[in-house]
Amino acid sequence: MPTLRVRDGWVALILSLLVTMGLGFVLAYTLVADIRVNQLRKAEYVLHEVEKRAVDTTTVIKKLNALGYQLCDQRNLLAMRRALFQSDHIKDIGFFIENNLVCTTGMGMLETPVAEDPPDLIDLNGYSLWVDRPLLMFDMDYQAIMVRKDRYNVVLDPRFISHTTMAPFSWQLVARMGDEVEHVFGVRGTFIIGKSVPGLFSRLGDSYYTHCSAVSPYCVALDLNQLAFAHGYGLVILLLLLVSFCVGGGCFAILTYLFRRHRSDKQRIKRGLAEDAFYCLYQPIVDLRTEQVIGCEMLARFEDNQGPMSPDRFIPFIRELDRTWLFTRQLISKAMDDLSIISGVGVSFRVSFNIFPQDVTNDAIAELPHIPSLKESPFDIVFEITEDEYLDGDSARRNLAALHQAGFSIAIDDFGTGYSNLNQLKKLHCQLLKIDRTFVFDMEEGSIKSSLIKHIVAIAHGLGLKVVAEGVENKMQRDALVDLDVEYGQGWAFGKPMPIVQLNQLLQTQRNSVERQP
Ligand SMILES: Nc1nc2c(ncn2[C@@H]2O[C@@H]3COP(=O)(O)O[C@H]4[C@@H](O)[C@H](n5cnc6c(=O)[nH]c(N)nc65)O[C@@H]4COP(=O)(O)O[C@H]3[C@H]2O)c(=O)[nH]1
C-alpha cells in the first residue's frame, strides 16, 4: 500500500476527532439523562414514602382525638396501642394533657409528665412538627420526627429515607408553609425557593431537581453532589472517554486505510493506463422483434496482478486523473483491432463506444473522424454519450454535428438517470436513445419508473430517434418492450459482455441459422 498523503492524514485526523467529540457528546448526554431519571425516581420514592407516613399519621391522630379521652387510663392506652399495632410506620404514640406528655405506648403512664418544647413548625393543616429530634427509646438513639395535633402525637422513624442510597445527590425534605418552606429532613439549604428545574437533557451543572407532593404539604429537592458524583460515576466517565477515544482511533485507522486503498487503486489505474492494461468485452444489442444481434457495445475491463476492478470503480479514477481521452483512444484502438475478426455482418452492424461528456465539450472528440480505423471501419460506429449538463454548450453541439457529418451515429446513454433535458435531445444530432436499465428492471412489478417507458418512447419517436432498452434480463421484459414499440434491446437475456471470440461465434451461429431457414 502507498504511504498516506499529509492532506489525507489531516482529513482523517479531523474527521476522527469530530467522531470522538460527537460520540463523547452523545455519551455525556446519555449519562446526564440517566442521572436525571435516577434523580426523578429518588425524589418520587421519597415523596411517596413521606405521603404514606403523612396519611398514616393524620389518620391515627384524627381517630384517637375523635375518641375523646381526657385522661391517660387503661382504655386510652389500649386504644393508643391498637392504633400503633395497626400502623406500618409509627413507632410510638403519646398522649398530652395541655402541653404535657402524660403517657406513651412505649412507657405507659409517665411518673412525671414531660413538658413539650415549642414545635419546629406548624403545617397548613394545623399539625405541629418536631424534626430531627434526638430521642432515646428503649436504649436506642433515635433521630426522630414527631407530629402532634390536639391531645396526641406520633413518633416517626425517618431512616426509611436514609435506607435509600441518595448518592450522588444531596437532598432535603421540606414542608410548604404558604410562600415559605420549613426544613423537615435532609441537608438544609438544598431546597431553594423559586429555583427552576432544568430539563431532562440540560447541562450536568444544572443538576437541581424538586418535586412536591399532591396530597401532602411536602416537597423534596435533590441536587447533584459533585464529590459524590465524581466518586460514583468517575469510572463510568473514564470508560465513556475510553470508548470515545477507541472509536475515534478506529475511525482514524479505517479512514487512513481507505485513503491509502483509494490511492493504491488510483495508482493501479494510472499504471494500467501507462501500460495499456485495459481490455474490451462486447455485449450484443438485438432487434427486439427478431432477437437478431444487430450490433454490440464495447465495455472496458481492467485486471492486474492484484485482481479485477469493476468499471463503476475505475471510471471515476479515470475522470479524477483527467485521462478520459487517453483511455477512450486506447480502448477504441484495441476494439477496432479485436473487431477485425468479425466479417459478414454488413455495414449496418452497430458498434457502440462510450464517450465521456467532458471529451465532447473540450473538443477531444474532434479527433475521432481522423482515426483511420474508425474512418475505414466496415461498421456503423455509434458514440454513446451520457446525458449531462456538459453537453448543453455550443462546442458540444458543434462537435457532435461534425461526428454526424463524418458518418458516425450518436446515442444518448442512460437516458432518464441524469440531466434529462429534452431540448438537448433535439440539438445533439443523435439518432438513438438508450433507456437506462433501472427503468427496465422492475417492469414486471409495473413500477412508476417503468410506466414512464412509454412516454420516453413517444418523445424519442416524436424526435425521429430509435430506442434501445438496456438491462433486459428476461422474456417478459422483452415482450413488454416490443409492445411498447421499443426497437432494440441489450441485456443478459441476449448475452452478457463477452470476449470478441465469443461474440464472433454468436454471430456465426446466428448467420448459420438464418441460412438454414427456407
Ligand atoms: N444488471 C444488469 N446489468 C447489465 C445488463 N446488461 C448490461 N448490463 C450492464 O450495464 C452496463 C451498460 O453499460 P453503460 O450503461 O454504458 O454503463 C457503463 C459505462 O457508463 C461505463 N463504462 C464501461 N466501459 C466504458 C468505456 O469503455 N468508456 C466509458 N466512457 N465508460 C465505460 O461503466 C458503466 C458500467 O459498465 P459495466 O459494469 O460493464 O455495466 C454494463 C453492463 O455490464 C443486465 O441485463 N442486467
From TrEMBL:
<keyword id="KW-0973">c-di-GMP</keyword>
<keyword id="KW-0472">Membrane</keyword>
<keyword id="KW-1003">Cell membrane</keyword>
<dbReference type="InterPro" id="IPR001633">
    <property type="entry name" value="EAL_dom"/>
</dbReference>
<keyword id="KW-0378">Hydrolase</keyword>
<keyword id="KW-0812">Transmembrane</keyword>
<feature type="domain" description="EAL">
    <location>
        <begin position="262"/>
        <end position="511"/>
    </location>
</feature>
<dbReference type="InterPro" id="IPR050706">
    <property type="entry name" value="Cyclic-di-GMP_PDE-like"/>
</dbReference>
<dbReference type="Pfam" id="PF12792">
    <property type="entry name" value="CSS-motif"/>
</dbReference>
<dbReference type="InterPro" id="IPR035919">
    <property type="entry name" value="EAL_sf"/>
</dbReference>
<dbReference type="Pfam" id="PF00563">
    <property type="entry name" value="EAL"/>
</dbReference>
<feature type="transmembrane region" description="Helical">
    <location>
        <begin position="233"/>
        <end position="259"/>
    </location>
</feature>
<dbReference type="InterPro" id="IPR024744">
    <property type="entry name" value="CSS-motif_dom"/>
</dbReference>
<keyword id="KW-1133">Transmembrane helix</keyword>
<protein>
    <recommendedName>
        <fullName>cyclic-guanylate-specific phosphodiesterase</fullName>
        <ecNumber>3.1.4.52</ecNumber>
    </recommendedName>
</protein>
